[in-house]
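Workshop exercise sheet. Pairs work together: one partner reads the sequence aloud, the other fills in the structure field after running the prediction. Swap roles for the next sheet.
Pair: D.N. / O.F.
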Amino acid sequence: MGIIFVTGIDTGIGKSVATGLMARWLAQRGRTVITQKLVQTGCREPVAEDIAVHRRLMGTGLLDVDHDGTSCPCLFAYPASPHLAARLEGRVVDIAVIDRATERLAVKYEQVLIEGVGGVLVPLTGRLTVLDYVAQRRYPLIVVGSLRLGGINHTLLTLEAAQRRGVEVRGLVLNGHDGAPEEIAADSRQVFAEALQHYGYPPAIVEIPDLGDEASLPKVNFAPLFREK
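Structure field:
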């Protein structure tokens, strides 16, 4: 199944929850699956915070590839865009290091889910955006969005940017933690389905309900996003 990149329409939209739940779903179906975090900022721990979220949702606990940094080789303390967080530490986002880490994971696992940072036009370096990175590697995208007010604009901008760059989009994951009014939610669902088809993508939309206290994780069917070609 290879490598799939999980992006968001914005920061704080629920990429980590979506990535962890997708990995759990794949593992329950017999796939060997691992997640990777492209870059983590605002982190002072030895293991990326988003990776810890993935493992909690997957029910695995931290793995060797987490402790040795393979699952997130670029950590920065300041909570900012990667290019700025790196500059404040006198460092750079080393793309070659990230690629080597992804290659190591892809050798060991059937499926690698790479969680991005912010949205697709977030700068990784002075000139390289997340979308540049994805397009150069021809990774398919899963876009995490929301039914909340404002979600339509951000989602359609993301789909248009991906389509213009020739990037495949597998579909949308809509995070339900915002609790949008049903009038807005229903309209957004229709707009998103029509937009996916307009841009030449499959109308695959999966919704994640609010996790609450995570005492019992919801059963979410991610099959529409992982159909074999």
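Discussion prompt: The radius of gyration is 17 Å. What would you look at next?
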